[in-house]
Amino acid sequence: xxxxxxxxxxxxxxxxxxxxxxxxxxxxxxxxxxxxxxxxxxxxxxxxxxxxxxxxxxxxxxxxxxxxxxxxxxxxxxxxxxxxxxxxxxxxxxxxxxxxxxxxxxxxxxxxxxxxxxxxxxxxxxxxxxxxxxxxxxxxxxxxxxxxxxxxxxxxxxxxxxxxxxxxxxxxxxxxxxxxxxxxxxxxxxxxxxxxxxxxxxxxxxxxxxxxxxxxxxxxxxxxxxxxxxxxxxxxxxxxxxxxxxxxxxxxxxxxxxxxxxxxxxxxxxxxxxxxxxxxxxxxxxxxxxxxxxxxxxxxxxxxxxxxxxx
Length: 311
Ligand code: RIB
Ligand code: CA
Description:
Layout: E1 4-10, H1 14-24, E2 29-36, H2 43-57, E3 63-65, H3 79-82, H4 104-114, E4 119-123, H5 128-136, E5 144-150, H6 165-168, H7 171-178, E6 184-187, H8 189-192, E7 196-197, H9 199-206, H10 211-231, E8 236-237, H11 241-248, E9 253-258, E10 260-262, E11 273-275, E12 287-293, H12 295-307
Parallel strand pairs: 1-2, 1-4, 2-3, 4-5, 5-6, 6-12
Antiparallel strand pairs: 7-8, 9-12, 10-11
The protein binds alpha-D-ribofuranose and calcium ion.
């Protein structure tokens, strides 16, 4: 089986950590590198968190630190959900996993330019690194096979009435990516808010009984508690791994081609993904937007991903 080449750009973040776990353990994917961006927490925290997850799982994947702030707006974080470290909960051992010296944006440019145009870029945080790479070296656009992002929403947001965190944290970066002319799969809140990690799910994944499942349980312990505190939900929405699950089994999502534009006007709806599901404006369809999720299949993919890490 030919392995699909991916670069995962993320802001760990509890759900990003599960995306790393799912991608890193899959024989169907070749995880070329993990590029990290500020988002859920500061870059100092998110890059350390990515390395701690890679180390816990024993993955042989290089980790690159990228942009520590958005392209235009002021920085925002999500400490209310992910805690002061950005990955509160698990007791990580002393960190030995190295951080690459190369900047994440340079890694994206170098790797994409040298490729055969067969790399999928997955973003599960603010899209700053990918946008900066596109601005630094526009020739990489034709080398991106597809952009798969966790972000946006056809409906309401989760950090403002209009906007979802990854987009609002850097709307201009999202605009650069959504206008790059490359195939896009947008995995937004419309589907990720249905991937709720209830206690029964945590218990199911804990029964796998290996180090990956132990990490999952310890991550969800914190993540689900804060999601309940902030949103009142009995299970935390496991946003980011839905992107990887779709790469592993596209039938887990139903997508529809739409025109999606990012509101960069700076007003009340700043950072909103305006998804033209009814084609009111007859504009080109620049994204395949996820509109439905097979939740049972999603949790099956997560469990299978945990089992990849052995007994
Ligand atoms: O809105 C949810 C997204 O914002 C997820 O990617 C979460 O990790 C945060 O980055
Ligand atoms: Ca994230």
